[in-house]
Amino acid sequence: MPGAKTHAEIIDDLESLIGAADSNAAQLEGSEKEVEAVRQTLARIKRLKLEQLALNAQRQAMTQNLNAALKEGTDAAITLRSIARAKIGHRSELLVHFKMAPLRKRVRRTKYVVVAQHPGEEATAPAPAADGAASGVGPGAAP
Description:
Elements: H1 7-23, H2 32-88
Helix pairs in contact: 1-2
């Protein structure tokens, strides 16, 4: 069995070895026990190979079943979340329990004025208008 590496090569080698032993039974007198051991091993290998193929097919079928169940679960979760949002409300903080973000009030950010300062000079900011709208800073400023 020199150089045999794959399952098919090993099986072919064992089959040819049994064939050679059967054709030369007269010269191999007294070695029936060893030939029978090779036959039994070959039969066991073939049986296990068939079982492996069947299990591989089962594994693929199980993977397909699992993926279908995962998709079904995802769809069911989407449905439940939609119902929860409709019954609880879009703005309710209880939506966080369902791993959904509620609609929250938008908060405006205040704008900061950055004034470049040269070394040795004092930083000055532009004077704000009386209502704060002209400078673009403050609550009355236009967006």
